[in-house]
Write a sequence for this structure.
């Protein structure tokens, strides 16, 4: 008996079992969390059916059923009461003040799902649930209920959206036209406000600027007039395309068609029709700008900011990491000093990310950015250009954070290069640098890319250091755009990770915004996976390419 | 016998319905019609920064959205990491707007005066009420300030005789009696934390058991998920899952809920102004960008945005006072 136990011990079956159990548990948790995010994130955009609930006290609500549960409450005498509760998304935030309401089954006198009920997604105040009463296109009025009304509404919506697009285009033309003049005028006002304006030199400059401004104003006056007139005409036109809707209780409300994102009748829609709406919403989420202080609309600026930041970080971290690793591995004399440096680099990986954030704030933003402002942008001071958080500083901070990962992975790659290859190159008369460039680096490239992959994964998910180095809730402009110099390193940016934090913890309408948190989390995971896949693809290609060069 | 039970049930239903109706009504606040509409100035452009309160983050973002409809060439970047971040940003000049959910402390004002030689200008931008939230199924309707102090504070400066730990200590029966309260609050960088400490706890200390949350919405989330929880947060963050309690000065006194009338008449005890601080040299004109933005804030449209975000608009008189400060 005793022998058998010791044999069991020697074979170590119990340890293998424990190890595999640990693996199963951790993998299971990863799968579980991804499943939760997937189901909650993806189901959010599916158009739900609406129900009309009439209550005992004659009030009525139309909305989407979100949750229902049974509650047991124990009263003072110890008796248990059972209560069926359900949560209804009633929308109409401008009328009710709140998106959701909890009701009990006992309150309900009648429940139905009217086919003619419409769900209207608006640009402001969220969804409206109600019934179409009247469609107005200019002087035409349609109020005969039935299919024709819906068709007319759709026609009006198309018209309004087309006009809206033209308004936006005209507005953009107008903005582009005005931008140089606006910059000039801004310069004038800032000069007028500064103490410089009192000096003779300031006065002279002011006069020059004003002359320049008048000249510009005259040159664009005609075009400005035309565009402005067009804009006014279009705006007026859109103000005449109106939808009148009624709530479940019959209160009427007018909505401009141009303020409607989309509308549909969920209760009479077929599966494919819903899928079409679903696809449209998904696209809106990925490609549109956020609305209603980030609780609605899309997250495009956040996706853009995340990707640009990760790319900038990669550009910064790879050269430095590789150079450091090559020096440590190929040039430096191995000894206590190098061992100490290597230990420090490894320990750097364990420093909490917020510490890097504080360093970024103190060193990059205040010290480096502050000096850049002093030397190059002193005319704009006290308004800081680089002396405040921005995408460059955030990327560099993250580059520092991920540096150890790249150094360690590159060193591994360098160590894997066979000694014989290196010595062969040296024996053939190559200098050390030639040997590194032609033999070591190509062979170590897959290792370097592994480092990059790890760095991307770490960097894209990091939020804490970004919060103090340049991420904002709402950045009106992207870091890359059409205006010179195209890449604006000083701009603040939006980030998916911060977006999750902000919408989940800070938004005033947290019930309505909660599903958005899951969707954004899903998106962040997808983006990290995509970035990694690209890097893995290149690594595999490189591996194939250099396999032949090994002796 | 059956009839009586039915009657009781009906009564219960009516009470519940009454509560819901009231909750829905209470949110529908109208902005004073006398407040001037916003008039577009010739042309404004440029960049500005706003650094400060996270409570007002959404408000600033919504104001900016409205403002940019008039001036598409304006860019204002909004950062909200807590009210305490506003004064340093104003001193450094990194921000032109310092939204704060509490008034500046004298120390902070001194620091700004030292740098610029004059005091910062405090503008009351909107009204907010803090609410003590409980789960929607909680039978409690009203608390006195002493009780609030005894729930959240370990020092009990308002002088309630005993510590309140369980719901039974507040007189709740049944399943509530022996349940300990789980307390949710804000983190110490937030103005909400400071305001509640000063006004509800009489500058006493919070209990160690308060779960500090990183955002106002997450306090509400916590209370929604946890039936036996209690927490404080801005009343604008109320959801259908929580109930805001009415408050009274003393035990047994008259209770007032956080409705607009009670806030403006100062009967509701936990109301506060939300400030936007700016640095304005006395006698000198303000940067037109800053001025127009603030004029928008103090316009009918700007105050409508306040309502949209769940806060309370300013009364007419205060709007006029603040507009005078801009000149």
């Amino acid at each position: 008996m005793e022998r058998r136990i010791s044999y069991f011990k020697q074979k170590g079956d119990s340890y293998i079992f424990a190890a595999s159990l640990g693996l199963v548990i951790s993998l299971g948790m990863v799968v579980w969390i991804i499943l939760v995010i997937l189901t909650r994130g993806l189901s959010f955009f599916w158009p739900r059916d609406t129900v009309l609930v009439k209550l005992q006290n004659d009030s009525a609500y139309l909305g989407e059923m979100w949750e229902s549960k049974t509650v047991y409450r124990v009263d003072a005498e110890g008796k248990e009461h059972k209560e069926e509760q359900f949560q209804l998304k009633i929308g109409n935030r401008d009328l009710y003040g709140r998106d959701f309401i909890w009701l009990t089954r006992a309150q309900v006198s009648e429940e139905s799902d009217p086919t003619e009920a419409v769900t209207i997604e608006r640009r402001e105040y969220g969804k409206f649930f109600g019934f179409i009463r009247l469609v107005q296109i200019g002087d035409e009025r349609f109020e005969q209920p039935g299919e024709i009304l819906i068709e007319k509404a759709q026609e009006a919506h198309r018209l309004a959206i087309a006009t809206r697009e033209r308004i936006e285009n005209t507005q953009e033309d107008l903005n582009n036209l005005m931008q140089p003049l606006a910059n000039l005028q801004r310069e004038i006002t800032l000069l007028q406000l500064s103490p410089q304006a009192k000096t003779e030199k300031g006065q002279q400059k002011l006069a020059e600027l004003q002359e320049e401004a008048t000249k510009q104003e005259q040159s664009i006056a005609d075009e400005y007039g035309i565009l402005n007139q067009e804009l006014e005409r279009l705006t007026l036109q859109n103000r005449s395309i109106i939808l009148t809707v009624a709530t479940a209780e019959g209160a009427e409300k007018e909505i401009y068609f141009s303020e409607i994102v989309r509308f549909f009748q969920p209760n009479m829609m077929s599966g494919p029709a819903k899928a079409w709406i679903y696809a449209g919403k998904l696209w809106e989420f990925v490609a549109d700008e956020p609305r209603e202080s980030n609780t609605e609309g899309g997250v495009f600026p956040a996706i853009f900011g995340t990707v640009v930041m990760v790319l900038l970080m990669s550009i910064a971290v790879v050269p430095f990491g590789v150079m450091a690793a090559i020096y440590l591995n190929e040039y430096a004399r191995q000894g206590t000093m190098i061992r100490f440096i290597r230990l420090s680099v490894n320990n750097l990986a364990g420093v909490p990310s917020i510490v890097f954030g504080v360093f970024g704030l103190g060193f990059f933003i205040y010290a480096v950015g502050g000096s850049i402002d002093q030397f190059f942008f002193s005319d704009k001071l006290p308004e800081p250009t680089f002396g405040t958080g921005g995408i460059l500083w955030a990327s560099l901070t993250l580059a520092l954070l991920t540096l150890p990962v790249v150094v360690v992975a590159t060193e591994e790659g360098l160590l894997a290069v066979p000694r014989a290859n290196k010595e062969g190159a040296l024996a053939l008369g190559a200098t050390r640098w030639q040997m590194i460039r032609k033999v070591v680096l190509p062979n170590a490239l897959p290792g370097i890319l592994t480092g990059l992959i790890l760095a991307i994964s770490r960097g894209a998910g990091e939020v804490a250091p970004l919060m103090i180095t340049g991420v904002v809730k709402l950045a009106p402009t992207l870091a890359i755009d059409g205006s010179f110099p195209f890449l604006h390193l000083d701009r603040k940016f939006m980030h998916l990770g911060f977006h999750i934090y902000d919408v989940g913890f800070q938004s005033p309408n947290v019930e309505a915004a909660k599903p958005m948190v899951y969707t954004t989390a899903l998106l962040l995971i997808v983006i990290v996976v995509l970035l990694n896949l690209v890097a893995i693809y290149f690594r595999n290609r490189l591996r194939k390419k250099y396999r032949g060069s090994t002796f | 016998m059956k009839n009586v039970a039915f009657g009781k049930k009906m009564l219960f239903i009516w009470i519940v319905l009454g509560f819901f109706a009231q909750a829905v009504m209470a949110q529908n606040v109208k902005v004073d019609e006398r407040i001037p509409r916003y008039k577009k100035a010739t042309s404004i452009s440029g960049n500005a920064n706003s650094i400060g309160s996270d409570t007002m983050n959404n408000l600033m973002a919504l104001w900016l959205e409205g403002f940019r409809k008039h001036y598409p060439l304006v860019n204002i970047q909004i950062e909200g990491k807590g009210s305490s971040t506003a004064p340093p940003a104003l001193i450094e000049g990194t921000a032109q707007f310092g939204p704060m959910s509490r008034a500046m402390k004298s120390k902070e004002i001194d620091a700004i005066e030292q740098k610029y030689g004059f005091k910062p200008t405090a503008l009351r931008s909107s009204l907010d009420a803090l609410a003590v939230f409980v789960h929607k199924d909680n039978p409690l309707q009203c608390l006195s300030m002493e009780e609030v102090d005894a729930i959240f504070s370990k020092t009990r400066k308002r002088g309630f005789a005993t510590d309140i730990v369980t719901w039974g200590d507040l007189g709740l029966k049944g399943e509530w009696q022996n349940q300990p309260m789980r307390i949710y609050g804000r983190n110490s960088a937030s103005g909400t934390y400071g305001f509640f400490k000063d006004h509800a706890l009489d500058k006493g200390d919070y209990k160690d058991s308060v779960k500090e949350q990183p955002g106002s919405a997450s306090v509400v989330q916590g209370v929604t998920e946890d039936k036996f929880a209690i927490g404080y947060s801005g009343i604008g963050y109320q959801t259908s899952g929580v109930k805001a309690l009415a408050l009274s000065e003393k035990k047994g006194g008259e209770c007032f809920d956080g409705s607009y009338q009670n806030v403006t008449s100062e009967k509701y005890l936990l109301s506060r102004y939300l400030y936007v601080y700016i640095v304005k040299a006395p006698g000198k004109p303000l940067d037109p960008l800053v001025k127009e933005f603030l004029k928008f804030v103090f316009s009918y449209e700007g105050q409508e945005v306040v309502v949209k975000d769940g806060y309370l608009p300013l009364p007419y008189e205060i709007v006029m006072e603040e507009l005078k400060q801009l000149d």
